[in-house]
Amino acid sequence: xxxxxxxxxxxxxxxxxxxxxxxxxxxxxxxxxxxxxxxxxxxxxxxxxxxxxxxxxxxxxxxxxxxxxxxxxxxxxxxxxxxxxxxxxxxxxxxxxxxxxxxxxxxxxxxxxxxxxxxxxxxxxxxxxxxxxxxxxxxxxxxxxxxxxxxxxxxxxxxxxxxxxxxxxxxxxxxx
Amino acid sequence: xxxxxxxxxxxxxxxxxxxxxxxxxxxxxxxxxxxxxxxxxxxxxxxxxxxxxxxxxxxxxxxxxxxxxxxxxxxxxxxxxxxxxxxxxxxxxxxxxxxxxxxxxxxxxxxxxxxxxxxxxxxxxxxxxxxxxxxxxxxxxxxxxxxxxxx
Lengths: 176, 151
Description:
By secondary structure, chain A is α/β, with parallel strands linked by helices. Chain A is built from five helices and seven strands. The mean pLDDT of chain A is 91.
């Protein structure tokens, strides 16, 4: 009898642990298959200067950050201040991918909340977004000197994440 | 009079006809069928419990358009799936491939079934412990319950 109770408790305990671990996972964070792979190249017009284009190849040899944002994205506003702070540090350049936005709205957003980006690229139909596996804006990529994606953040960048993960990673990659 | 009614009746339908725009890209039903068949197999990343075919999230629309364009361009189903897996990972597949990391996913349920069957078989086969013999008082009570007519 005692043995049976022990069994029941053990199985129950194991289930609780399993479910607790499951609850702790975030199902929205799908591991990106792009980490460790070359960042897809693209050529897009700049948000603020439509007649100029940017190609991801231009940044080869540098560590850079790509942040996917849009004026319609609420969580982007949440992280925006953090990005503005980052841009003031003068570290690796931060570029913006203005994803499925209206040009006027995007520019108004930058004028109102500050522009942390060295440049923003205008991805009107979201094609480049698909190449980068974007599914929940905002997303942030760290790309190394060889043009390989080394880190991806899905969701807003927080000051803690910036201090503890992104900035140290960028420093490390710059030494590579 | 009836002519007026007919006119009003038809006018109503005219409003209905103008009410909703048709779904785009039904120009090639065969292609559309392939697109939807493939989209049924793929997970929408925004609303994760829906297929790309079911979902009307912006991204699902975009991805369906991508699938359509690629199939129209002559890509095979396999190539389109590879294209999406490259970008979004195995997660987009409703039927994930058999890999070291997915062995438990594929065979876990069968393992549990086998375990359950084993426990069941062992329990059924175990000889049941003999019931302890009844005491005098219990015998008397049983007799009383079984034969109430005597009273």
